[in-house]
Amino acid sequence: MMAVMRAAADLRFSERHLLGIETLKPWAIQELLDLADGYVELNRQPEKKRPLLRGLTQINLFFEPSTRTQTSFELAGKRLSADVVNMAVRTSAMQKGETLIDTAVTLNAMHPDVLVVRHEHSGAVALLARHVECAVINAGDGRHEHPTQALVDALTIRRRTGRLEGLVVAICGDVMHSRVARSNILLLAAMGARVRLVAPPTLVPTDVALYGVEVAHDMADGLDGVDIVMVLRLQLERMEGSFLPSVREYFHRYGLTREKLARAKPDALVMHPGPMNRGVEIDGTLADDIERSAILDQVELGVAVRMAVLEALTRELREAA
Ligand code: ASP
Fold first, then answer.
1. Ligand 1: which residue has its CA nearest to atom 1?
2. For residues 84 and 133, is the Cβ–Cβ distance under 8 A?
């Protein structure tokens, strides 16, 4: 934690892109979370607009559907006064066969300052970033990373418990297909939390040993004494072949219910990145219980975190102007 403490005084965020958590130092994560904290308060005021990104252009380019992430990036850019354009991929030239790199080069010629990109293939956002001059934010690439979601989750935990270091966090369900899990594992490890993956053997990534996490295949063992329970969506769209006997059986063994949650600490927090399958990975009434569930906090903090990321990535550009 030394690096974190030294950070505020003599280091500041100077990455060109935000492609993943993997390359971020703990002090940079802390800086983004601190910036976001300030925006949470702003977003609760009637007047939410700041002129910080006035004159800058942000293009949201989503090749996969999104509700929370795309809306929150749009709101974040608008609250900071950027000109925000949502490119509808389904009606764009991509449907006529234009390649990802052609699209990048074409958009680049319009001088955007920030591109927010979601793509179904891992690595596609980093590839695109190599062909543009502006800042690129990864809004989720395949099963690889979803860095702003991990920042949202970390801020949610930090605001509810006051810390990240030393917490035990269970990440439950379809870890194999989840970019959210990967980014969270990296972030939580960097900030000194302990991660336990709780999933059927078929949904644990084969390279799990590289992550330095604990693994449990049973909810009772996996949730024992944890501070935080993160539940993941079953990502059926990424499953080729059969990973589960049936959805009903899955809920019985891995769906989060009050009974299973009783193994965790009495005040353990329940989280889910959304979209949620009620009655599949989580019981709907538990998800709606505001005493236990931080799911709506995650949605609220999403806007603040994305404002913080936009501020940090455009800092040098704004200072040079
Ligand atoms: N919204 C998250 C993502 O884009 C989680 C999910 O889809 O299950 O990865």
1. 274
2. no
